[in-house]
Amino acid sequence: MRNLKYLALLGQVGIVMITPILGGILLGRYLVTQLDFWQPIPVVLAVLGVIVGFYNAFRLLMK
Question: Considering the entire predicted model, what is its pTM?
C-alpha cells in the first residue's frame, strides 16, 4: 500500500512539472503564429515553465 502512495506522488510531481512547460511552449507558439511575436519566445517561456515546474514540485514534495 505504501508503494502505491509513492507512485501516486511520482505521478503528481510529473504532472506538476510538465504542465507549466507545455503551457509555456503552447503559449509561445500561439504568440508567434497568431500575433507575429518575437521568434525565440517559445524557448523563453519553456525555460520559465521549467523553473515554475521545479518550484511547484519542490512545494509539493515539502508538504
Answer: 0.87
